[in-house]
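=== RUN LOG ===
request id: a7f3
mode: sequence -> structure
chains: 1
length: 129
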Amino acid sequence: MKTQRCCAADPLIRVELEEELRKQLEETPDEESLKKNSKILYALSHPLRLKIAFLLLKSDHCVCELVRQTKKKQNLVSHHLTILRKNGVLDSYMKSRWKYYKINEGAVCILKGINNTGIKPDQNEQNRK
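=== RESULT ===
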């Protein structure tokens, strides 16, 4: 019985494989972009944070508006806003006495990509069960 070897052991296949891998590596984002995107994806990995991000995608909001829309306690919403801001998903600005949050441009593409899947954020939890 003949034992199979790795495809990379064949010189012709190895050359093709190395060329294909080189092309794929060139198309891969640089380390800095990968780190930035992984932080954004981490921040969006919680259902409440994802919901907040989708709300902010439509318009800027202060904490009290987000509390009302999410029907969660103020301290919980503030906690998740902090995580989103520290991981590059949100920016904030003062308007009179209130702090308003807006979605960062870097996160817009990721959120639109999630939204294009046709799955609403709340459906993800139902699909896991």
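=== NOTES ===
The CA atoms of residues 57 and 112 lie 9 Å apart.
DSSP finds seven helices and three strands in the chain.
=== END ===
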